[in-house]
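Sequence design from tokenized structure. All designs in this work follow the same two-part layout: the structure record, then the generated sequence. An example of the structure record is given first.
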């Protein structure tokens, strides 16, 4: 063996491996089951003598036209589920002048210190069942589910910041619970009159009933169209935090932080050779493993060129945590593509508002309410079960 062959062998031996053993996709709800199209299907694990999965989801009948938020649960690791039931107080609210307030993009996460589930949503507004935008009235709202299964009334996350006079939201976002029970909550926000939004993270206290802002982090901006949107955060070993961000310049972005508040300048998601991924204004989410970090995302790929925002198929790939780039050889399809978009790009079952959850030490899951706008907003709720080659010590 010459020196070059030895060097290549050593490089292969030290190169991070793909930890995914396989992916199994199942359909949890078909459109025909209830005659409804469900959206923003997001689940969390509630530990205990009999572990449960709790999922929130809502009906959708048009572009961002959300209806009552529901919940359902599973006590057999997601193999069977109860029927969806409405979350109290998360239906439409009538206001003066024919304005209706609705709620969507709910993300539930278990809070170990208080034994509760904290669900953070955002409010949206409609007139004649069409989305309208009174930006100065947009903010995060949250509900708390107790260990006994009761839901609290919706409360507003108060944040009196001059940079957020137009709107602020933490919709669809993964957040981090710190060792003391406080939270790192990423937000999108903007002042009145500015079309592009920024993102930052908020350090928040939570006592099982009230969520309150303690401190904000630095601002990240990209002044292209609506700017930066729908950030998600995760924490790795040695205290390093990661944030992934939706953008509107055909890219997605990543940044890191040592404390979850002060973030480095954003960088576009790239392969290890520096080639940027083509992403079109769609969120990404984290799949953390104790031995690796993965990203779930959509991108432009052969066969989906006509699909709106390239929102199918859904991919995952391992992050090279030294460079902050994706390892192309680990990429795989998580939720397969159905439909090629048709002439207007809408005739496909679209992903994009999915969620990733650590299920147990051997599996993680991705849940997604896929929709097909071209066929009258039909769709199915899907779940991908990712099996790991090594135990995941991050499991509850």
């Amino acid at each position: 063996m010459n020196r070059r062959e030895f060097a290549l062998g050593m490089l292969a031996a030290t190169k991070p491996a793909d930890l995914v053993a396989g992916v199994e996709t199942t359909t949890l709800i078909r459109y025909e089951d209830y005659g409804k199209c469900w959206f923003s299907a997001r689940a969390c694990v509630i530990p205990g003598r009999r572990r449960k999965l709790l999922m929130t989801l809502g009906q959708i009948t048009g572009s961002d036209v959300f209806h009552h938020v529901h919940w359902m649960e599973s006590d057999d690791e997601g193999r069977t589920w109860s029927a969806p039931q409405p979350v109290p107080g998360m239906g439409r609210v009538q206001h003066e002048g024919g304005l209706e307030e609705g709620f969507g993009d709910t993300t539930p996460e278990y809070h170990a210190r208080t034994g509760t589930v904290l669900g953070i949503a955002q409010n949206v507004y409609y007139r004649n069942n069409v989305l309208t935008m009174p930006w100065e009235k947009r903010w995060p709202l949250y509900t708390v589910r107790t260990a006994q299964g009761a839901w609290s009334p919706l409360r507003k996350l108060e944040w009196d910041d001059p940079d957020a006079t137009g709107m602020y939201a933490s919709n669809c976002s993964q957040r981090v619970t710190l060792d003391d029970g406080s939270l790192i909550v990423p937000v999108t926000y903007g002042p009145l009159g500015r079309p592009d939004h920024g993102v930052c993270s908020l350090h928040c206290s939570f006592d099982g009933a009230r969520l309150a802002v303690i401190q904000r982090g630095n601002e990240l901006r990209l002044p292209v169209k609506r700017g930066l949107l729908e950030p998600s955060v995760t924490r790795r070993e040695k205290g390093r935090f990661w944030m992934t961000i939706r953008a509107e310049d055909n890219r997605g972005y990543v940044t890191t932080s040592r404390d979850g508040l002060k973030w480095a300048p954003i960088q576009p998601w790239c392969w290890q050779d520096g080639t940027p991924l083509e992403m079109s204004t769609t969120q990404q989410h984290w799949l953390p493993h104790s031995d690796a970090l993965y990203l779930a995302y959509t991108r432009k790929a052969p066969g989906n060129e006509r699909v709106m925002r390239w929102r199918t198929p859904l991919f995952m790939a391992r992050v090279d945590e030294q460079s902050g780039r994706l390892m192309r050889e680990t990429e795989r399809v998580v939720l397969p593509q159905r439909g090629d978009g048709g002439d207007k790009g809408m005739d496909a079952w679209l992903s994009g508002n999915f969620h990733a959850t650590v299920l147990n030490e051997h599996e993680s899951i991705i849940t997604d309410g896929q929709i097909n706008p071209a066929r009258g907003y039909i769709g199915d709720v899907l779940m991908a079960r990712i099996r790991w080659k090594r135990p995941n010590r991050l499991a509850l």
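Residues 16-388 form a domain with the Neuraminidase fold (CATH 2.120.10.10). We note this feature because it recurs in several other targets discussed in the main text.
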